[in-house]
Amino acid sequence: MSPCFEARVFSFPKDPENASQYEDAYYYDAESGMAAIADGVSSSIFARQWAEILVRAAKGLPEPGDTSSLVNWLREQREAWSRTVDVGDLKWFQKAKLAKGAFSTLLRIRVSPCDASTAHEPRALQLHGIAIGDSCLFHVRNEKLIRAFPIERSDCFQSDPVVLGSIDLNRDEGLRFASFDDLCYPDDLLVLCTDALAECLLRRLETGDRPKWADFWKLSDQQWRDVILAQRDGRQLRIDDTTFMLLQIKVSSREAKRPSSSATAPALLTPILPPLQPDAGTKEPLANPPSLPITARTLSPLPVGPGQRNSDSHPPRSPFSLGSSLRAQRGERAIMTPEVEEMVAALKNEGVSFYQAKVVIDSITELSDDEKREALRQFIPADKPNATSPIPPPAITTARIYQQTAERVCREAASFLVKYKLIVWVIVLGLVMFFSYFALWAIARYLERLIMRI
Length: 454
Hints:
Elements: E1 5-12, E2 24-29, E3 34-39, H1 47-57, H2 67-84, H3 92-98, E4 103-104, E5 106-113, E6 125-132, E7 136-141, E8 144-149, E9 164-165, E10 178-184, E11 189-193, H4 195-206, H5 213-218, H6 221-233, E12 242-249, H7 338-350, H8 354-362, H9 369-377, H10 394-419, H11 421-453
Antiparallel strand pairs: 1-12, 2-3, 3-5, 4-9, 5-6, 6-10, 7-8, 7-11, 11-12
């Protein structure tokens, strides 16, 4: 069987001077189309060994609904961990951690030929993913993000995600695996990475600073280290073990190719818009009606900012740099063709937001900037004072993100005060009593000195 993908893996420890403390793990088998990545929890003990056991056993990981098989699978991996670790040289404070064992996230993907239910898509491959914790997959096609899994927003990362433990602490009933099934095609890029880098990438996508995904594949090991250190120095990347796996989907034995615009999509991935057809009244009919890669499943709540269109004249300096810039607004307003009007109506029927509509409209290369801008105007509410300027500049977008972050912090603070109001009142009362006592002591000292002078 020919390999389903080609792979490149980059890793960098949280402490370059002490690489032995690196606690991530990865494994892939291109022949079977399986790849897995795990992030061992640094605060636990023997986390690296536990992560390595999980990724190598991920090929046999049962589906989330098969509870009995999952229990047996976990028991086998825990027994393997117990046989692997050497507890003879542990210090007294390390032995205290041994009772709880090691913890790790796990993300596994599998690429396989499609089954009979997708026989009308002979050029597609089946993509299946399963995850627990915050290690992430980014599915990229033609430099466009198709899916982020299992986390779609940077503010969803937590300091204590759900993880797999090497010791049975009677918490297995609380384990919740996320999974998905989708189609992928040759030349698609699957990116698996641990939480620190995943959070950084999602944050940049939300602010419109879209990474140049293809450039990651071209990096050398030294360039990778330079990129990670630069991101850490700029406080864009948390100091943590960083693992980055790139999988380039290859043509299968069935000579799979990317679907053309005339290919019929399965019901699960039917595009929300019909392809544009050439208009007889236009001066230059569209030679190739565009196929829209945005589907109902890709319109996720992931915020998309402006300025995400590629610009060949201004290539990015690094995969993290902003790869596009907004073009200047023109004074005239374009007249929408019937095809564009039909597209706008279909988007409105789907109830998409302004930025989700922008992703769809920007993907149609046959439309001019004026036509895209005029189509976007239709998604601005009439009661908005800035309806004549539907595309805010990056500075305004950044300000909105800061404002939303401040509002979220205020809401969390208010929620904390409500939830722990008794503790808050005790603290406030203690402070009042302390300052009252201090004030009375100062007054008493002043009166004592005044009496002594008299």
